[in-house]
Amino acid sequence: QVQLEESGGGLVQAGGSLRLSCVASGRTFSSILMGWFRQAPGKEREFVAVIAWRDGSTYYGDSAKGRFTLSRDNAKNTAYLQMSSLKPEDTAVYYCAATHRLSRPDRGWAPGWYDYWGQGTQVTVSS
Question: How far is Cα 121 from Cα 45, in angstroms, rounded to an integer?
Fold first, then answer.
């Protein structure tokens, strides 16, 4: 089992920045992928970004490219999603998720691969 806990959400104006954190605990996770997804009201869950814990390689969804940066701190068992140039359409609940079933980040865009999910953190971007 892997437990995940997100934090860092909040209200920000358009053009601003936020950094989300996801702390992982539990089962050995040197081989996991950790992904970020978001879900806005009435919409499907959308892939944001994913990182391979072993080597830090990343893969981004189209909405995140050029604006978001995903990194991890092995010593703290924490992943960070730095979000910049935020837009109102970025408003959503953001979830981190983990899987042992994939190793390549470019395969980690589908939520069905993930077995462990955090409770989510709300991000609201005002115009």
Answer: 14
